[in-house]
Amino acid sequence: xxxxxxxxxxREEIERIQLKNLKKTVKRAYKNVPHYRQKMKQMGLKPExxxxxxxxxxxxxxxxxxxxxxxxxxxxxxxxxxxxRYHASSGTTGNPTVVGYTKKDMENxxxxxxxxxxxxxxxxxxxxxxxxxxxxFTGAFGLHQGLxxxxxxxxxxxxxxxRKQIKIMKDFGATVLIGTPSYALHLAETAExxxxxxxxxxxxxxxxxxxxxxxxxxxxxxxxxxxxFASENYGMSELMGPGVxxxxxxxxxxxxxxxHFLAEIIDPVTGEVLPAGETGELVITPITKHALPLLxxxxxxxxxxxxxxxxxxxxxxRMAKIGGRxxxxxxxxxxxxxxxxxxxxxxxxxxxxxxxxxxxxxxGFLDKISIDAEVVDxxxxxxxxxxxxxxRQIGESMHTVLGIHPKINLVEAKTLKRSEGKAQRVIDLR
Length: 430
Ligand code: DLL
Fold this sequence. Notes:
Blueprint: H1 11-32, H2 34-42, H3 64-69, E1 85-89, E2 97-101, H4 103-119, E3 127-130, H5 138-150, E4 153-155, H6 162-172, E5 176-179, H7 181-193, H8 198-201, E6 206-210, H9 216-226, E7 229-236, E8 241-247, E9 254-256, E10 261-266, E11 280-286, E12 297-303, E13 305-306, E14 318-319, E15 324-325, E16 330-332, E17 335-337, H10 339-347, E18 352-363, E19 366-375, H11 378-381, H12 384-402, E20 407-412, E21 426-428
Parallel strand pairs: 3-4, 3-5, 5-6, 6-7, 18-21, 19-20
Antiparallel strand pairs: 1-2, 7-8, 8-9, 9-14, 10-11, 11-12, 12-15, 13-14, 16-17, 18-19
The chain binds 5'-O-[hydroxy(phenylacetyl)phosphoryl]adenosine.
């Protein structure tokens, strides 16, 4: 099923809409965001210089650092009274990246999600169980409002409390599961532990997963264990949240809502635009955003773009699975974590040394992160209660900053391995 005929327009028509929307976005950014006006002036560029789609290449790139240095609302193009929603995601250090939405942005967001869930086969007859965490993360609210737009019955379960999730899914007869693929696998495992066969005892028929990468093997496992069609979705808070791209039943890449997002692939080192089909860093210009009109946002996600029409009837470009990132961001069960945030917390705590080690593992299907930190203060080392206080303090600070609970191991000074060259702070064993 196709939600909007826009998804099936001939290529020239899609590009005509993209150019119209791009021009409006550049004008909005230039007029209302000092950061862009200044950048474009420095480059000798005016909004009127954007006359064809390929002129997007004339525009400056935007990075997470730009959002960080304009924290919280410096990149917004509208006054606060126009904002009806805020969300945020992890910044590399210190401040999170804040995003805002106007009423129109919210309408567009719902539309993009309605397309994604329809692509996966969701209809108004479905009951959708949302196991993304509700809060500043865009995942839960994004899917929630788009599913309502389609008319599905939404169960806003949020994350955690896994056994209760299974009971509610079973009792409410959920037919659609929304969440990260790793948590969905954990749900399946827990259902089995509870003596249930997820494919028989639950009524699920579709899963819309995303927020983190997953392998084909994970998809097959999800499809088989729950007896569902499992689709993958891609998105990013800065660009909208979920809603940027998603898979149809052909499973041949994630369709991008191209009337809302102009996608490019660049060489991450030179910044040069690469031809269709080549692998590089995904750069996206959201072209209908009013609150936060970003130009050429560097996602740091590695993928490729494919423009041949899909057998499903859609003509929109498809992006391949994300093959990795160009930076060191870790995704721990859907939560973005930068090693620099961990370092900042540790360096702010008295009695902790400058050497630390982050280890990421998989326990069952869930990601686990542990942090080894050296205690350098001898008075603390000699006192059990001081050690416990320190342990608690680090745990609480990590939770405040990262939104997750890493396992903290306090070790004696000078016991962690020193590197001779670049310190390898992160060991990812997943
Ligand atoms: O994860 C938005 C989202 C929520 C998408 C729910 C889909 C479903 P952020 O928290 O800002 O936004 O994280 C964005 O997550 O740059 C990718 O590195 C990663 N990511 C998101 N979806 C996928 C995916 C949401 N399908 C960052 N495959 C992105 C691989 C993904 N990585």
